[in-house]
Amino acid sequence: MPQRRLFSLIIVSFTIISTLSVCKPSSKVESKPQKVSNSQPVTNDRCSQTITYHADKLSEQGNEVAADVDLVINPTTKIISLHAEIPSAQQKVNFDTVIESIDCNLNSDLTEGYSIYKGYIVQQDGTSTKATLKVEAKDGKIKIFDPAQINEHAINVSKWTAAP
C-alpha cells in the first residue's frame, strides 16, 4: 500500500472520531449544545472528557482492512493522538493533530450524535496539513472519518473508554 494511501487511510480513520461499533443501545440524544470556554459547544461531560477509541478494522472504499488503531481525543489539551498498526502494510503510524475547534453533540453513552474536530497536523518539515475528524454515533455504532471522504475511509470503533 503506497505511503500516501496509507496516510490518507489513517487520516480518515482518524476522522475520525470515531470509528466505533459497540456501545449501549439508546434512542435518546441530548438536545441543543451548551457553550463553554473558547466558544466550543458541549452537550455533556462526554464532550469535555478524554476518550480513547479502539478499532481492529478500517474501512477503505467499502472493504475492511485489519488494523490495530487507538485514537485518543483530549479536548483539554486540544490534541488528538493516533497510533495505528496495519499488518498488511507492515507499518506503524503515530501522529498528533492539534484541535482548533470542536462542535460536539454526543449523548452521554455515545450511542447517538456526533462530534466534529477541526485542526491541523504538523508535518516533519514544519509545515501543517489541515484535518477534519468526525466522530459519529448512530444506532449504538461509532465510526470516525473525514467528512470530505466519508465513502472512502473510516475507522470502525470496536470499543471506547473515557478518562475519569
Strand content: over 45%
Number of helices: 2
Spans of at least 5 consecutive residues with low confidence: 1-43
Number of domains: 1
Separation of the first and last Cα atoms = 38 Å
CATH class, please?
Mainly Beta
The topology string of helices and strands comes to: HEEEHEEEEEEEEE
> Roughly how much helix do the residues carry, as a percent range?
under 10%
Give me the CATH architecture, please.
Beta Barrel
Strand order of the largest sheet: 4-5-6-7-8-9-10-11
Report the oligomer: single chain
The number of distinct β-strands equals: 12
CATH fold label: Lipocalin
Report the biggest beta sheet as strand number plus sense, adding barrel if it closes.
8 strands, antiparallel, barrel
Average predicted local confidence, pLDDT: 77
Computed structural class: mainly beta
Radius of gyration: 15 Å
Spatial shape: globular
Description:
The chain has 164 residues and is mainly beta. The protein has 2 helices and 12 strands; from the N terminus they run αβββαβββββββββ. It has one domain: Lipocalin. A hairpin with a 4-residue loop joins strand 6 and strand 7. The relative contact order is 0.31.
Q: What topology emerges from the helices and strands here?
A:
Blueprint: H1 3-14, E1 19-20, E2 34-36, E3 40-42, H2 45-48, E4 51-60, E5 63-74, E6 79-86, E7 91-106, E8 113-122, E9 128-138, E10 141-145, E11 153-156, E12 159-162
Antiparallel strand pairs: 1-10, 2-3, 4-5, 4-11, 4-12, 5-6, 6-7, 7-8, 8-9, 9-10, 10-11
